[in-house]
Design brief:
By secondary structure, the chain is α/β, with parallel strands linked by helices. 30% of the residues lie in helices and 20% in strands. The protein has helices at 22-28, 58-63, 66-70, 152-161, 163-188, 201-208, 246-255, 332-344, 370-394, 416-422, 437-446, 451-461, 471-479; strands spanning 2-7, 10-15, 47-50, 73-75, 85-88, 97-98, 115-120, 124-131, 134-142, 194-199, 234-236, 264-269, 273-278, 283-288, 309-313, 319-321, 329-330, 403-408, 430-435, 462-464. Strands 6-9-8-7-10-11 form a six-stranded mixed sheet, sandwiched between helices. The protein is globular, with a radius of gyration of 22 Å.
Amino acid sequence: MTIHLSTPEGNREISHEPGLSVLEILTREGYPVNSSCGGNGVCGKCSVKILENIPPSAGDFARLSAQSIEAGFRLSCTIRPQGDLHVVLPAMRLAWRRMKDEEFLPVEPASEKTCAAIDLGTTHIRISLWDGGRRLEGRAFLNPQRAWGADLLTRLAQAHDSTKNAMKIRKLAENAISGAISEMALHHAVNIDEKWLVGNTAMMALLSGRNSDLLLDPDNWTKRLDCAPIEGDIRFVPPLGGFVGSDILAGIEATHLSESPPGTLLVDFGTNSEMALWDGKRILATSAAGGPAFEGGGISCGMPAEAGAIFRVADHLGHEVLEGGTPLGLCGSGLVDAVAVLARLGHLDRIGRFRSAQRPILAEGIALSPGDIDSFQRAKAAIAAGIGRLCDKAGISVSDIERIHACGAFGNHLNVENAIATGLLPPAGEVLLCANAALGGCESLMLSEDANARMEAILSLTEVFNLAQDPEFENLFMENLYLQPMTN
């Protein structure tokens, strides 16, 4: 099947495999179609003109004007071609979002160099620009590699299938990062001296083009892999081992984990969630593939924590929307709230089943499905089981955890009480929301005078455990599927 594509730069024919949406096809081929919901049909930004007479979808009617629909515009994420299509793509660009001051952790720079810090995540990329000892700007955007799979194993498998796929996946992230940094540098009229990057191991290996195949072999899932590029102008901070990347190393740096009381836990929530537990002598680290639910992916009404996302749900099912206005979908913190509130009001039982066929409406067109509840349960059970196994390795119980640094996907919006009630987090004396700890740690290392010594100190303290072949993890996973507080 072929898409006959017309763009302001010219025409092109794209052959594609069946089952993909037009959005996925175009993104894979390097055409940056606007989308802030990850292809869930929520944001309404990915419209393209289709010359064939394709009936509008419910998403088209909800998100596009009558005039646009009449002119042939459709949401590209809702169309999965059954034959050849003629698509007209207007001039578009990736939807950058300028990060707000409250999204950054405090950093004490020891350098005044002009430099960029990059946090390469499975779902999001975040970049900050520094000059003269101050942060000039930060930007966040969806990782365009998501067109090759929402989870990292799917992308690794796609890259393994052919060198052509691997190069396309690499170029999507490479172009997105270089484009953002170039635009920021041009805007602020600076020349960048250094670029530092942290990320999960798979995303780093796919970007560098080195050793990504090794991550498909379970024998390498606790080893420290060299995934830094042989040449290039970006310094890759080394991962801790296996799928436990340098983003968690940066989080350890940002939160000063090894200087905390024994029993301090760090959880970096995301599509690939990573955890580290300080027992007073060692940092025990692991990762769990919880899926993209915490970042709005795989949820019928899900979207990232962007403008229009419901980020808070109250006990009377009232809600708060990021930057106000009409709610477009539900982000990760809103999902945690919604599940907790629905369970508290009796709409959900502890197994996660709706007690009635009629699902409660959170907002017009926004309601959770049984599949959404299941996705949340699986994601939170993976996290809880990982925490449980780290506690086992440390010889403590979950109730012994004194402090938790909750980082990553939920930003500063997570309702800790609801996270504990659903079993996403264990009860602890102190829970600190650290938002972009990976980016903050990258900034801290980049702007320090002793980065190598700091990284080596963290590496020397850390032991990485692989949960994928751990039978006890499977048992804990099943126990933690229930919507109830985490137990020992």
